[in-house]
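[job 4471] stage=fold_predict status=RUNNING
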Amino acid sequence: MITPVAAGATWYVDDDGGSDFTSIQAAVNAASAGDTIIVRDGTYIENVDVGKSITLKSENGSASTTVSASSAYDHVFDVTVDYVNISGFTAEGATGLWEAGIYLEDANHCNISDNNVINNGDGIYLSHSSNNTLTDNTANSNNNCGIHLDYSSNNNTLANNTAEGNNYGIHLFFFKQQ
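[job 4471] inference complete, writing structure tokens
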């Protein structure tokens, strides 16, 4: 289920050209809150900063759409706002200490689903983030945690995720019982 945001424009990204943009970051920069960005099959070498309430999804799923960090010392997807949806990507190569395939900082009401996060410092990392849903993600072979919740104790839902071959599978840090 994708978290609802106000309906907006739909943009397409194709690393081979022939679409609105050839990079995901360029599409995010041009988008407005409520827009949807559909990423066509391919391998995208970039770190994507998401500072707008948008939906990012691959056209054909994580087996067909890979985002590999251009800098190992930055998150592949770095989300810093509420109401962001990310689905259907393989996110890899953010191997610096505390870097993640998908990182949410002070981001609430986000939906992270159907992603494959591999070979990162952490697979999916939530910091000071609440009311998010993580569903049907695979977080394998990350150096630290598959899924890491740090000061993120309010109403996050994790369902049907797989975390194997990491130092820790699912790590809850400074997690207060309500």
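[job 4471] summary: The first strand starts at residue 10 and ends at 13.
[job 4471] exit 0
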